[in-house]
């Protein structure tokens, strides 16, 4: 429901898979692909771990870009 609500308002979702430290490196790509598929996302969800800090910079980057405080970097 939240994804639909965001879409109706033109807000791009930023889906984050938490507790990334609990997923083995081998299982991460499959989990990311499954969440993307299950939620019908255009872009893959981000991985985050509060324990290790993994993903923190990437999440901040996305948020700052959305708020217009940072330009997107070419990929």
Fold and architecture overview:
- A two-stranded parallel ribbon has the order 1-2.
- The protein is 40% helix and 5% strand.
- By secondary structure, it is mainly alpha-helical.
Summarize the structure.
The chain is mainly α and 75 residues long. It has helices spanning 2-8, 28-39, 56-66; strands at residues 16-17, 46-47.
Tell me, briefly, the overall form. globular
What characterizes the major β-sheet? 2 strands, parallel
Structural class: mainly alpha
H/E order of the elements?
Answer: HEHEH
Strand order of the largest sheet: 1-2
Q: Give the low-pLDDT segments.
A: none
**Rg, nearest Å:** 13 Å
End-to-end C-alpha gap = 31 Å
Record keyword descriptors for this entry.
single chain; 75 residues; mainly alpha; 40% helix; globular
Per-chain topology:
Elements lengths: L1 H7 L7 E2 L10 H12 L6 E2 L8 H11 L9
Parallel strand pairs: 1-2
């Amino acid at each position: 429901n939240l994804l639909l609500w965001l879409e109706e308002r033109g807000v791009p979702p930023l889906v984050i898979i938490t507790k990334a430290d609990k997923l083995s490196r081998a299982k991460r790509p499959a989990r990311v692909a499954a969440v993307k598929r299950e939620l019908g996302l255009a872009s893959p969800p981000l991985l985050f771990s509060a324990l290790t800090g993994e993903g923190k910079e990437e999440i901040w980057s996305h948020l700052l870009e959305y708020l217009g405080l940072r330009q997107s970097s070419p990929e």
